[in-house]
Here is the input.
Amino acid sequence: MINLYSAGKKGVFEVVSMPGIAQLANLGLRVGTQVAVKGRYALGGPVLLRVNDDFTLAVGKDIATQIAVKEVRCHESPQCPSRCPGVK
Here is the structure.
């Protein structure tokens, strides 16, 4: 497991644990949610995520480092479907 801030841009990750911040749950980011990192802003800025291939969400670095994720599939893998989160 790695934290969301350290996750690469070439994979799809599942949220394993996260802080109990109600706003994140209200926005659809919960344990079990699949996310793809779309970008990372410079100088420790927020991480831009594609959540369940439904919408894009920016999460600050301080919160992203507290969210543990595991990779569930990689865009470079032949097993990766062509329409998984983050592949556009």
The mean pLDDT is 84. The chain has two helices and six strands.
